[in-house]
Amino acid sequence: MTAEGITGLSLRKVAAESGLNIGSVRHYFDDHRNLLVAAVTEVGDRMGKRLTRYSADTLVGLDGEPAVDALQALLEELLPLDDERRVESIVLTEFIVAARVNPIFRPVTEQMAADMRQVITHALDVLDVPEPAEEAERLIAILGGLVLDAVTPHGSLDDERIRRTLRAHLRSVLVTGRGGRPAV
């Protein structure tokens, strides 16, 4: 899927790449759409498992640079900073775009967005960021832009630039605060 996009994924290709006959693949997936839903669900499960390694308890009492470090480590799990996360980001981007016109993908992508929003909002709340839900929306927009620029010909962000961009925003929230005032 990373090479050909969502339209390139087929039961026949999955069978060929997995060394199975197509009948075996059809046993698990009735049709192309079920295969695609399974693919995006797998991506969501992988991302979710990585995020569960970060307990909000580890954020309690942090401020300044330690808070930036901890929150950045959590959020980097959602960014294409290694081969595994890059593939996941490409697959997820394909499905988010497809969900715009293909309603079968909407429940999965909407649930993934809600889960991400909840994790980020909770982390910001634990870090005593004012209006954590509002700040979570800003962070989600930044993360989405970073992912899009990293996995499409639209942008040219390398891993270091992605990290620096995210860190600059996190510092503005957790260290300097808005308007140059110390953050709460």
> What distance separates the N and C termini?
44 Å
CATH class: Mainly Alpha
**What's the CATH H-level homologous superfamily?**
Tetracycline Repressor, domain 2
Overall mean pLDDT stands at 85
Quaternary structure annotation: single chain
Helix and strand run: HHHHHHHH
CA-based gyration radius = 19 Å
Poorly predicted residue ranges: 178-184
Descriptive overview:
The protein is mainly α. The chain contains 8 helices and no strands. The chain has helices spanning 11-18, 22-28, 32-51, 64-76, 83-99, 106-126, 132-151, 159-174. Helix 3 packs across helix 5 and helix 7 (132-151) packs antiparallel against helix 8. The longest helix has 21 residues, at 106-126. The protein starts with 10 loop residues before the first helix and ends in a 10-residue tail after the last helix.
Supply database-style keywords:
single chain; 184 residues; mainly alpha; Tetracycline Repressor, domain 2; 8 helices; 0% strand; disordered C terminus
How would the blueprint of this fold be written?
Blueprint lengths: L10 H8 L3 H7 L3 H20 L12 H13 L6 H17 L6 H21 L5 H20 L7 H16 L10
Helix pairs in contact: 1-2, 3-5, 3-6, 4-8, 5-7, 6-7, 7-8
Can you give me a brief rundown of this structure?
The protein has helices spanning 11-18, 22-28, 32-51, 64-76, 83-99, 106-126, 132-151, 159-174. It has 184 residues and is an all-alpha fold. It has a single domain, classed as Tetracycline Repressor, domain 2, CATH 1.10.357.
